[in-house]
Amino acid sequence: MQTVTLRTTFFALASISEGYWPNIHKALKDKGLLDLVYETSEKVYDAHKDLIAEFRKLRNEALGHISDAIATTEEILQSQRLKGKCILA
């Protein structure tokens, strides 16, 4: 359970939506640990605001680059497809 609480603390600090870790969220909530994890996250954030802000900025930049790369890849794949329908017998 220690690993789960550490992951959740990281997710909270990184501003990763609970929708990306629903099973962990449910497990902690069921065990009554979710509030403790959020309190711990807040204390860590208060102690390291600048570092966490820099991490979030870098993460968002990286996600932007990843999105751009996916879009470019999709455009390339779309341009390489043959016109018409391919019917396999």
Keywords:
4 helices, 0% strand, 89 residues, single chain, mainly alpha
The major beta sheet can be summarized as: none
Name the helicity range. over 70%
N-end to C-end Cα span? 53 Å
Strand content: under 5%
Q: Number of DSSP strands? A: 0
Count of discrete structural domains:
2
How would you state the average pLDDT, rounded? 89
Tell me which oligomeric state these chains represent: single chain
Number of helical segments? 4
Topology:
Elements: H1 2-13, H2 22-30, H3 34-47, H4 49-80
What does this 3D model show about the protein?
By secondary structure, the protein is an all-alpha fold. It folds into two domains: 1-47, no CATH class; 49-81. It has four helices and no strands. Helix 1 (2-13) crosses helix 3 (34-47). The longest helix has 32 residues, at 49-80.
What is the gist of this entry?
75% of the residues lie in helices and 0% in strands. The chain has four helices and no strands.
